[in-house]
């Protein structure tokens, strides 16, 4: 296999760090491009909500001083970037003593878990369905049933979440409607807690899976159809290999490679969907955190949450890209 | 193996002694049931909406024009009220008539998708052709930009923007979404242009001194049309998903709601817990129908563009 | 290179009888292979030639039961060492493949699975037919033995196809093709995509391996010069018909069928520059072949009888048959005339 070529590695790392830099810069610039002084307005709103109407100017000044908003923009930018490098995302404005890092640290594992499990399921189920759709020996009944199960494909996960929540949580009561684990449970490695997490996670994960796996099935089917026309498939047939072996070693094994690339490309869209599904289920991950921050006009928290989620997505893409040469023997030499 | 190249898409049946009934792939490709079905569903939907504009009072979509929380005709809400013919699809908690809301809201949601997808697509065509045809530094920079833009979940940046701007009108929202809907078409068109550029007939045209502009618009563009349409429809799906997402987070126009905004209101009011299914359900089902129709069109266009997928199944 | 004529016995290992293969199209079936019959003797190397589209590859794939839809076998019989291939059930056919009939494809093309190591692609065929091999060391030695047969270095054992040259890939295909010592091996344009020098070396390897292992071989190709070096008999196909099948020496010394004559004359010679006799390919619509003789539209000697009656194969001597009315005893005068014309041209 010869390992990953240096060129490929450098390019993937360049994309990764540029992504982080672009995201950080956008998040820094956007509030400052807006008309008026939204930060001051937000601080003012906060002060107002806290009940200090008198001496508002002084208080705003005090807040601005505290957050360093009176310095020149480039100083703020440098401080913002060095802060990010050190993992310091500043304070939450609405819940002042808490740092953004603390709040994000509590929410991020839930989102990663939800996305991870959902991805694992839809990638396997989707590719398997696609392979079966294209395989000549699949029973006719299966070939009819699979497309029927793909009816929800392309619907936003958010809407699927609404439908699932209403049907299976509200009407049937099989699953809880909100949150990621049962009320009154203390997180820990107890059987009860794990069971509760799974019970709460099924509907949100399914909301993502049922709208997504069809895409993978269609993509896989297209790849399989292409591969069926390859010369090595004729040879595989001539060799008298067992049909099932040909299916997984010659067809699926080769068709899965472009699907991995597609997975890396789809991470961004996937995260978009998960954020909204979390809102529907009030799942205590990053999506719900960002919506709470929106409601509380907690701009520091919005910035921090967005940045960390973007970083996580970029990291996921990097991991997929770097593991790709391990499964495709051709990539390491060609250097892409 | 000369004889086998044109039959590559055929399923591998041991021996191939049976006569294969797959002749329909030689028919007119545009007579594709997925494409026609999807287009038909959308057409029918908009015809009904058109009728709605003619025969229903769309002002009822404004708040306080109707009794509150009424269920659709033939159903009963948690207070024991039954639906009335004046508001056949029921009403929500600020007194909007759901039918009027549906008539007004559906085109508004699709509008955002069309605008955002069109702007993104135009940018994608320009960038994709530049990267694929000019190559060199153009290609390097555009590819890098695409890689970055595709990695970043657009919703997060849109949330940051909207957190600053607050609620915006639909056109602004569409333009904001289009800032993030150029990358996928660019990537796709670049790949297609690259493969066409290497194809025999384009090479031939270049060697015989046909100007680059003519090659682009006379040789490559027509062959790309089905791909471009499929990409456009896909882009529209993406744009509507973003728009609905932003609306459900509360960023849409509030006076005359679109479907996403209606869902936002219903979630805020706890409609899911109060069994007011018509409130969020009607927008959800309508959007789902739009998405399924777009998917069908997209799949149909894919098959039109790629005959290999066009096999009887 | 010495001829191996004496090595071929009279025992028939492959008997193709009345084989017909069509390709379905909306405008009607294309007749790719039209009722052809021939025999392959034990230890023999048979060359199958003809211009592109004549059905030689389809014939091979028909024998191998690899005709891909919309192609299908209409009727016929394919007997390999007493087994009727067309009657085999699916699982029987699977087991019969590679042990009875194996294929050496154009290895320089995409015939090897790009994501599998060379060894794994040879091991999978062994294990598919002989079961899981527990003795890994013996398996390795066996594959090294195959490599040695075809002149491959052992270091490619763990390599992937893209790391090999075209010639090496072709040798891998040969090694794979003979791995189970099949009764009949079919080499489909096995040297076509290689450059001239490598072509020669690979062709020699093919003959050497064939002799060592003692299989019977069908070589499909269009390079008459190269085929003359390695085959015992040549079968000439035209538009789905077998027009002549003859010992290689006969074909080059005195080609009988008018089409074979054209083919032989079209072999370029370094000694003299001669105008090309063959001007165009198959001219008729393959869905509606002409009545009578398939070649009559291009044949310089055709007369009314050729349009009325289809010529059947005529045995002119041992292992040499030709399907042309000129060799019917009734038309001896015409044959004499034809040869006279030919000699004058």
Describe this structure in words.
By secondary structure, chain A is mainly alpha-helical. Chain A folds into two domains: 133 residues, no CATH class; 186 residues, MetI-like (MetI-like fold, Orthogonal Bundle), CATH 1.10.3720. Helices cover 76% and strands 0% of the residues of chain A. Chain A has 13 helices and no strands. The radius of gyration of chain A is 24 Å and the shape is globular. Chain B is mostly helical and 313 residues long. The radius of gyration of chain B is 24 Å and the shape is elongated. The relative contact order of chain B is 0.16. The N terminus of chain B is likely disordered. Chain C is 32% helix and 22% strand. In chain C, the strands form two sheets. In chain C, strands 6-7-8-3-9-10-12-11 form an eight-stranded mixed sheet, sandwiched between helices. Chain C contains eleven helices and twelve strands. Chain C is α/β, with parallel strands linked by helices. The chains are: A mainly alpha (336), B mainly alpha (313), C alpha/beta (345). Chains in contact: A-B, A-C, B-C. Chains A and B meet through helix 1, helix 7, helix 8, helix 9 and helix 10 of A and helix 3, helix 4, helix 8 and helix 10 of B.
Low-confidence stretches of chain C: 1-7
What fraction, in percent, of the residue positions of chain C are helical?
25-40%
Mean pLDDT of chain C: 85
The CATH homology group name of the largest domain in chain A: MetI-like
- Percent range of helical residues of chain A: over 70%
Number of strands of chain A: 0
Low-confidence stretches of chain A: none
Report the radius of gyration of chain A as a whole number of Å. 24 Å
Distance between the termini of chain C: 32 Å
What is the approximate shape of chain C? Answer: globular
For the biggest β-sheet of chain C, the strand order reads 6-7-8-3-9-10-12-11
Count all strands of chain C and give the number.
12
Helix count of chain A, per DSSP? 13
Largest sheet of chain C: 8 strands, mixed
Structural class of chain A: mainly alpha
What multimeric state do the chains show? Answer: heterotrimer
